[in-house]
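Box S1 | Example of a co-folding query
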Amino acid sequence: MLEGPAGRPLVGKKVLVTAGPTAEPLDPVRLLTNRSSGRQGFAIAASLAALGAEVTLVAGPVSLPTPPGVKRVDVESAREMLAASQAALPVDAAVCVAAVADWRPDEAFGVKLKKGKDGPPQLRLVENPDILATLAVDNPQRPRLVVGFAAETNDVLEHARAKLARKGCDWIIANDVTEPGVMGGSENAVMLVTKTGVERWEREAKESVGAKLAARIAEALIQS
Ligand code: CTP
Ligand code: CA
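Box S1 (continued) | Returned holo structure for calcium ion
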């Protein structure tokens, strides 16, 4: 196998990263969206590129600079994120960090809805496609390594294990978003949950979590 020069073990490898929230239009001025700064996903993309990977970063609406050496594709909705992610295939690894809106309004109106005597509109929501689960489906284009995130508020490990099984991915990075300073903040305290075990990583800067995960991805891709 061709390995990159020292310190760049991912030269020749392609990786897809999704990051940020998605935004689902209700009308031209109103959106349904999620809380996500995009910082963790961008940090992971930066670290993977620093190790030599060819990185496609599919990003929802965030205000962050593009990491050096990363190909960025900006999207808004979950359906756009799925299409852009599938367009980036084939890749060796996919890391889904995005906080995808689980639901979208069933209809996006072409003109602004107005307040009126009928009161607020009754919204009907429909479920968005699951990008991680779609990428993890066993088929010839499946990345060798598919990694998901799980932001939880309770029973973190139990939910993460259930997600690992349900999504068909290889690893879940689980974090407790009730920890002060994590959501929108600069640090993260995560667990790496695989089919064989759990590792608790110490609380550290999102950049350090990104570097550690990128190094683990490099190890996994070089071994397999
Ligand atoms: N994810 C995705 N597409 C979706 C929903 C989630 O790709 N439509 C990915 C996220 O990027 C993350 C993982 O799935 O890597 C877990 O997301 P999460 O919201 O925690 O899981 P859900 O299956 O949506 O479950 P719930 O929100 O009910 O906890
Ligand atoms: Ca969700």
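The mean pLDDT is 94. The radius of gyration is 18 Å.
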